[in-house]
Amino acid sequence: MDCLEVVRQLWDYLDSELTDEAMARIHRHLAQCRQCYPQFDFERTFLDAVAATRREHPAPNLIRRKVLAKLRKAGLDL
Ligand SMILES: [Zn+2]
Predict the structure, then answer these.
(1) Which of the ends of the chain has fewer CB neighbours closer than 10 A, N or C?
(2) How far is the CA of 75 from the centre of ligand 1 (A)?
(3) What pLDDT digit, counting tens, does each position of 7-60 carry?
(4) SS3 45
(5) CA of 62 to the centre of ligand 1 (A)
């Protein structure tokens, strides 16, 4: 499995929407690929921030700002 294939399926991976085999293959790739790992980390942090913000703040106009704040706090350069 190459990096492009991993990145293309990363969102589905994060949502656990792939087959067990595909989940395992991506997991193995991320564990050893320095090129993909930062991308994975970013998307996981992003999804966590969105999920947390939805729980805390149902008002949609606040979500974008809160998500960006959480991502910056997580060390992402936005
Ligand atoms: Zn890779």
Answers:
(1) C
(2) 22
(3) 889 888 988 899 999 999 999 999 899 889 888 888 888 888 888 877 776 666
(4) helix
(5) 34
